[in-house]
Amino acid sequence: MHIESLHLKNFRKFKTLDLVFNKGLNVLIGENDSGKTAIIDAIKLVLGTHSNDWIRLEKEDFYSSDGTNYEYEMKIICTFNDLSEDEAAMFLEWLSIDNGNYYLKLSLKAKRKDKGNSLSEVFYDVRAGEDEENGVMSGLARNKLRATYLKPLRDAQYELAPRKGSRLSQILNNYDIFQKEKPTDEHRLEKIMREANEDIEKYFSAEEGKIISKKINDDFLGEDGFSLLHNPLSSKFGITKQELGRILERLELQGFSTDSGGNLGLGSNNLLFIAAEMLLLKGDNYVGLKLSLIEEIEAHLHPQAQINLVDFLSKKSDILGLQTILSTHSNVLASKVDLNNLIICKNGKAFSLRKEETKLNQGDYGFLKRFLDDTKANLFFANGVIIVEGDAENLLLPTFAKFIGYPLHKYGISIVNVGSTALLRFAKIFLRKETDKGELDIPVAVITDLDVKPKEFYEDDDNNITSPTYYQVSEGDIACIKAKFSQIQDIDFTEITSEKYGSKTEIEKAFKNIIPQKLGLKTKVGKVLCELVQSTNIDLNNDLPTIKNNVLSKKMFYEQKVKYFVGKDWTLEYLLGLSCIKNLFYEAILTAQLILKSDDFDESSLEIIEEIKEIKKIVEKDIREWEKTMNREEIAYKLYWEIMQGKDKNKTSKAVVAQCLSSLFKEQPETLKNEILQDEYLKYLVEAIKYAANVPS
Questions:
Q1: Is there a contact between 577 and 636 (Cβ–Cβ < 8 Å)?
Q2: Which of 269-283, 629-643, 658-672 bottoms out in mean pLDDT, i.e. has the lowest?
Q3: Would you list the DSSP string of 620-648?
Q4: Measured between alpha carbons, how far is 415 from 382 in angstroms, rounded to an integer?
Q5: Which residues of 554-580 are buried (b: 16+ CB within 10 A; e: fewer)?
Q6: Are 235 and 213 in contact, with CB atoms under 8 Å apart?
Q7: Torsion angle, alpha carbons of 86, 88, 91, 94, to 10
Q8: Nearest CA to 47 among 168, 176, 144, 173?
Q9: How far apart are CA 29 and CA 380, in angstroms?
Q10: Mean pLDDT within 569-597
Q11: Are 563 and 446 a contacting pair, CB within 8 Å?
């Protein structure tokens, strides 16, 4: 059996919550105070724990929208499914049935009563079954629903040490091998201890140790000692309390590793403790819930150990019949766990990333499994996310944002550099399939280039572009494919016949968006259409602006909290050349070229300082001369394509240029900030940053 769902009403941060769990591994992720612990505590309140962790309901556990006025009623419902025959028999009188399947429901209802002095009395009980008023569950049955709980600040060494009521003795006591059919029976461990005790007594009474016993009894406790004459004292050495329970309390679980030299550190002891707790869930004859609740599983574990542990829990869940619900702040773990196992907690809501609940398709899950690394996994813990497609944006934006007054770290914004064309795959992590259940309240700004070359590129003979072309789908093309594929007769293709496309790939993509998935013809029909479409020469003055507008409209995307911000021309670097910071951009290019040709660049050396001074003079002189004879677009083309990219033959690293430009921002006056905020070419960057920061434009 496993806990299938959790319903919360008016519990801590959650006004209402309906959360479905996986049978095996479930990983709660999110920033601090996002509700991860509340979910685990809610389950603990209903089920209890094997270690009898004490948790009591207080006024502050009731939902409050303002932190002052608290609700008076609360409800927590845990629903269990997939009961085995033995489990069903154990909980028979509280079971319900749905479509022939048994399930078990436990409900905690709580009420609070004000005492008139800011304090409250809280009353609650737990009932089983659909009839919540009468379903009182026996203590024996409740014990079979207890969860194994590992708290966040756990002292593994203390928990495994011998002491009265030790955690290890509680765990071992759950195994049948440590039970006796009759109280008078002697357990094997009791026999071992009895025989050991006899040997110890003999050692101190008849062997070398008797000198110690004699000293105590004769010298200190005898007639000449400090015992009273009417109540003489005597002693003997031995092992006290030889009952089985006391023996278990004296046991210690010791760990060893080849590298430890006999002394395990916090991390290894933590793993040892987790292994001991797992014993509770793997008892040979154990019938009941096998659920482990683990907070901050990464505690004291280095990244490789974290990954190894979670990988074990994921792979062994089915074999052991084990369900795990754990919380983490580790982006390492978040990147390695299957997306289907992740649950994002945010602002009093929780969102499972199971394929049934997101807009990710099967291909997206496969892609993200390969490419969602620990750096990109920062997005799960952010207040806002900016997704970029290159190193230049990734390196420049933090400094740019800080300069215009929106430091990303202060707003809890993560930049995720996904590279190439995977932007939407990562963005779709935040898109919910059913928005009536709530939207993920994390603004996601996706920054991308327009990627349409300007007129200057086509007019430059060095680029060997003989005749720039575009593609447009004709009514005749549509008639041909409709004749070939009868299933698409009733589909309206006006949307794609009215546009001009820069490539056949764009046509195929647009066509796939129109054809319903259920027809199974998306790829086949798209390829046939692309074979039919003929290219047309571009009129640079009339057709190019139309193509740019078409591409821009296609790239613009705004759904739920995911919004695209598209540069209005070619690339980021081209737009920098068009903008009010073109001088800085040019200086960054020349500085980057100086760095790249130097084997040992030291900006503090006198030689480099002089060269940088010379670069500043060159920039000022060149820009002044160019502005006399060239328009804005021609200067931008020269800066980006000719000087920086060497017309695609001798490229200067975009990343190094971005680093240099970031450094130059630190030297600029406050007046430049206002120019940037008003610049039409940098507007998309400014708006993307403000959107991710939840700042109105």
A1: yes
A2: 269-283
A3: HHHHHHHHHH--HHHHHHIIIIIIISGGG
A4: 9
A5: ebeeebbbbbbbbbebbbbbbbbbbbb
A6: yes
A7: -170
A8: 144
A9: 7
A10: 95
A11: yes
- Map tokens 């209890």 to a residue: 48
DSSP bridge pairs for 444? 385, 562
Residues 603-623, mean pLDDT to the nearest whole number: 87
Q: Are 660 and 591 in contact (CB under 8 A)?
A: yes
pLDDT surpassing 70 at residue 260: no
Which pLDDT score is estimated for 134? 66
Asked if 163 and 249 touch (Cβ cutoff 8 Å), the reply is: yes
d(CA 564, CA 447): 6
Rounded to the nearest integer, the mean pLDDT of the chain is 87
Determine which helix (DSSP H) or strand (DSSP E) holds 692, and give its type and residue range.
helix 683-692
Contacts of 165 (CB under 8 A, 6+ apart): 249
| CA–centroid distance for 125 within its chain | 34
The alpha-helical segments, DSSP class H, found in 83-148 are 85-90, 139-143
Is residue 506 predicted with pLDDT exceeding 70?
A: yes
Question: What is the SS3 assignment for 97?
Answer: strand
DSSP assignment string, 566-590: E-SSS-HHHHHHHSTTHHHHHHHHH
Please name which of 47, 89, 56 lies closest in space to residue 323, comparing C-alpha atoms: 47
User: How many whole angstroms separate alpha carbon 688 and alpha carbon 446?
Assistant: 7
* Cα(238)–Cα(196) distance, integer angstroms: 9
For residue 264, name the pLDDT band (cuts at 50, 70, 90).
Answer: confident
The amino acid at residue 450 is L
> Which region among 7-21, 111-125, 519-533 has the lowest average model confidence (pLDDT)?
519-533
Of 456, 455, 392, give the one whose Cα is nearest residue 638.
Answer: 456
pLDDT digits (tens, 9 = 90+) for 533-551: 888 887 888 888 888 888 8
Fill in the DSSP letter of residue 148: E
* 38 Rama class: left (phi>0) / alpha (psi -120 to 50) / beta: alpha
Half-sphere exposure in the Cβ direction for 664 (13 Å, CA): 24
pLDDT class for 491, splitting at 50, 70, 90? confident
Closest residue by Cα to residue 175 from 81, 297, 80, 278: 278
Find, among 78, 25, 93, the residue nearest to 47 by Cα.
Answer: 78
Query: What's the CA gap between 345 and 441, in Å, rounded?
Result: 10
pLDDT at 364: 87
Examine the pLDDT at 133 and tell me if it is beyond 70: no
With 0.85 as the threshold, say if the pTM is over it: no
Question: What is each CA distance from 534 to 37, 500, 542, 543, 554, in whole angstroms?
Answer: 60, 12, 19, 16, 21
User: Could you tell me if 413 and 386 are in contact, meaning their C-beta atoms sit under 8 angstroms apart?
Assistant: yes
